Amino acid sequence: MPAPAATIQDLFAYGSLMCEDIMATVAGARFHGTPAVLAGYRRFLVKGEQYPGVVAVANGTVAGMVYRNISQKGWLRLDRFEGAMYNRTPVTVLFDNKTEGLVHCYLFRPEFFDRLTSTEWEYDTFLRGGKTLFQNRYGGFKAID
């Protein structure tokens, strides 16, 4: 039986937080990520930004990282960083194509769908050019503390 949502301590990251250095800055602690896949979703670039939003889409999949045992302080920092466009929600991910796990994920809220582009967000593209822009411009870093 899965753990109640209130006791979930793990995060599925699918965008900028896949970078362990960004995750450490945001959560206030260093974590090692474990690869996982979220089925039934796709991630799209947010207009004018370097980061994505994830939305439910039949037959979609999103590759990401799971960080385990996030502290209460870490969740508070993450919630502030993600802001109003995201809702922390329990989801089931797949590890190694065989083991399921219940984790939290910041899903893009439906009232903000008009801010998403039709362009799939790509992690490799983010690492090549978007990461530096993101780290220099994203206002969520100021909301952490």
Provide a short characterization of the protein structure.
This protein has 145 residues and is α+β, with helices and mostly antiparallel strands.
Strand order of the largest sheet: 4-5-1-3-2-6
Series of secondary-structure elements, N-terminal to C-terminal: EHEEHEEEHH
- How many distinct helices? 4
How many β-strands, per DSSP? Answer: 6
**pLDDT average, as an integer?**
93
Q: State the CATH topology.
A: Hypothetical upf0131 protein ytfp
CATH homologous superfamily annotation: Gamma-glutamyl cyclotransferase-like
Count of discrete domains? 1
**Shape from CA axes?**
globular
Q: Describe the sheet with the most strands.
A: 6 strands, mixed
Structural class: alpha+beta
> What is the first-to-last residue Cα distance?
36 Å
Helix content: 25-40%
CATH architecture: Roll
Provide the gyration radius in Å. 14 Å
What are the key terms here?
145 residues; alpha+beta; Hypothetical upf0131 protein ytfp; six-stranded mixed beta sheet; 6 strands
Question: Would you mind describing this structure in some detail?
Answer:
With 145 residues, the chain is of the alpha+beta class. The chain is 26% helix and 39% strand. A six-stranded mixed beta sheet has the order 4-5-1-3-2-6, with no helix packed on it. The model has no long low-confidence stretch (mean pLDDT 93).
